[in-house]
Amino acid sequence: xxxxxxxxxxxxxxxxxxxxxxxxxxxxxxxxxxxxxxxxxxxxxxxxxxxxxxxxxxxxxxxxxxxxxxxxxxxxxxxxxxxxxxxxxxxxxxxxxxxxxxxxxxxxxxxxxxxxxxxxxxxxxxxxxxxxxxxxxxxxxxxxxxxxxxxxxxxxxxxxxxxxxxxxxxxxxxxxxxxxxxxxxxxxxxxxxxxxxxxxxxxxxxxxxxxxxxxxxxxxxxxxxxxxxxxxxxxxxxxxxxxxxxxxxxxxxxxxxxxxxxxxxxxxxxxxxxxxxxxxxxxxxxxxxxxxxxxxxxxxxxxxxxxxxxxx
Amino acid sequence: xxxxxxxxxxxxxxxxxxxxxxxxxxxxxxxxxxxxxxxxxxxxxxxxxxxxxxxxxxxxxxxxxxxxxxxxxxxxxxxxxxxxxxxxxxxxxxxxxxxxxxxxxxxxxxxxxxxxxxxxxxxxxxxxxxxxxxxxxxxxxxxxxxxxxxxxxxxxxxxxxxxxxxxxxxxxxxxxxxxxxxxxxxxxxxxxxxxxxxxxxxxxxxxxxxxxxxxxxxxxxxxxxxxxxxxxxxxxxxxxxxxxxxxxxxxxxxxxxxxxxxxxxxxxxxxxxxxxxxxxxxxxxxxxxxxxxxxxxxxxxxxxxxxxxxxxxxxxxxxxxxxxxxxxxxxxxxxxxxxxxxxxxxxxxxxxxxxx
Lengths: 312, 356
Prior knowledge:
Chain A has 312 residues and is α/β, with parallel strands linked by helices. Chain A has helices at 37-51, 68-75, 83-94, 133-142, 150-155, 168-180, 185-203, 224-234, 247-258; strands at residues 2-9, 13-19, 25-32, 57-64, 79-80, 100-104, 109-115, 118-124, 214-217, 238-239, 274-280, 289-295, 298-303. Chain A has 9 helices and 13 strands. The longest helix of chain A has 19 residues, at 185-203. Chain A is globular and about 60 Å long. Chain A starts with a strand and ends in a 9-residue tail after the last strand. The mean pLDDT of chain A is 86. The longest helix of chain B is centred in the middle third of the chain and has 28 residues, at 132-159. In chain B, helix 2 crosses helix 3 (55-69), helix 3 (55-69) packs parallel to helix 4 and helix 13 (278-290) runs parallel beside helix 14 (305-321). Chain B is globular, with a radius of gyration of 21 Å. Chain B has helices at residues 14-25, 39-48, 55-69, 84-97, 116-124, 132-159, 168-180, 185-201, 219-223, 231-237, 248-253, 259-265, 278-290, 305-321, 337-355; strands at 3-6, 29-31, 74-78, 103-107, 211-217, 240-244, 295-301, 325-330. Chain B has 356 residues and is of the alpha/beta class. In chain B, the strands form 2 sheets. Chain B has a 4-stranded parallel beta sheet, with helices on both faces. A 4-stranded parallel beta sheet of chain B has the order 6-5-7-8, sandwiched between helices. The model of chain B has no long low-confidence stretch (mean pLDDT 92). Chain B starts with a strand and ends with a helix. Chains A and B meet through helix 3 and strand 8 of A and helix 2, helix 14, strand 8 and helix 15 of B.
């Protein structure tokens, strides 16, 4: 049986799926990236291999996420795609009529609008990572909570604290202040969830028409508090898929399947030693940061330089 | 004492500006543009700038510092219609505080304040032998060169994504710039024709209905490729025809850049002038939407007030005509990955739309 591997290497977590020819998920994995994309991918691939039914051969690989290029080279991927296209394709394969995709990840957030299965508009957060998962993470830590507890705790609140949503720095000082004057913890947590949603709608969703069916995904969609905040503010139901965190890698697996380019994928990458080396080119003051990637001491690829000089 | 004259970069315009200065200053000075833009330029600029100023300020200041390090003692700068109009004074103060000694001259770009006498007198102070005749002939020559340059650049921009042998157009353009630097007024036309026909002879592989994108926004980040992460080159790699109206000949001399014309072109989306080039961004977005373009890319420095004001209106154009718009805000980040991701997704989206 033929199968297709898709991997989404984000800043915070690395996700992988293997799909069969009917685009059904037959193996999936979700691990922290922990600043080591190659190591994380090795672990994800090992977990996927253990779930794989016998007699299955992975024939195409796709990568997406911020480390897509690096991992694409490591795995010899047929398809290396940006997150927006990957998420749109992945979500459409699960929820065919979807009109709006809200996505909040660890470092970035995006909105994708679709009409009749076509992406018609999208936006990503620009310079700043306010209102993303890393903000929730640091605030959970400040309140002495595990990130997984935030959602349930927010649901307990009857009277969410008002927290400035414009900017993370303002939100944080607001939060500290509110905690010190005696607001309840669950109210503050619910306030943070509202702040994330308001920030998202102001900065990413600005002026865009959000119509149902709406799907919410990315790591933050696991937080039921944020889901409830979205539903209250948008005034319609927000659908969260159990596999919501896997849409990027699912999408790129579908794209790998559609690419019709096939070559058997070898799961032995565990044993191969991949090393990356960074070097600042000193040919001109531009000092391009060049990345070299080696497989068992053999140079696979290099990138980062703006001109041909200094590649050697 | 001989003057050592320098000025900041913007795209390829150091070529005609250098000619202008050399003609006007004569033997009283040597002219060399600021050293080419590198990461060091923007690092220096950012380090010595106030945090909240827009990115053109930081690039200009970096250029000035590098020019002064190379021994420049006369710096030229331009005015501007937004807060950029005050930038030269702030920059002068910063550079003096850093301990540099120099003379700063301002080239007035706003047609309402432009005066031949002021311009002449500014150079007369450097070159006592300068006559009005010389000033006028230098201006005429340089305007002609700028028009020729902008036209060749426009041709290259539209076609560079479709070259059969990549790199040919850029090579010809480079030779053209080298040749035009030594031209007299009457030679400009001949040189332009020669290189234009060379450019047109470059074999292209351009489909009739290729993807077309228009770029609008703030003038500096549009015209200085270093500041926009070479966005036009990236677009060309996808096989996209890129159209941009903003260039120096358009900004300084085109009747189509006048407000009454722009308001007409904006077709009801704006009633009053937005300020600086904001009106232009709206007017050209309407133009692109009406003329079958597949998408619009709007560029601005982070915090650019006129362009921030134009964005909601450009968004309304986008909604009315169903034309997608991609917005970029540039500051001194160093990662190109974000820009590339968004461009790739924009391309994919348009491709999907066209396929449907």
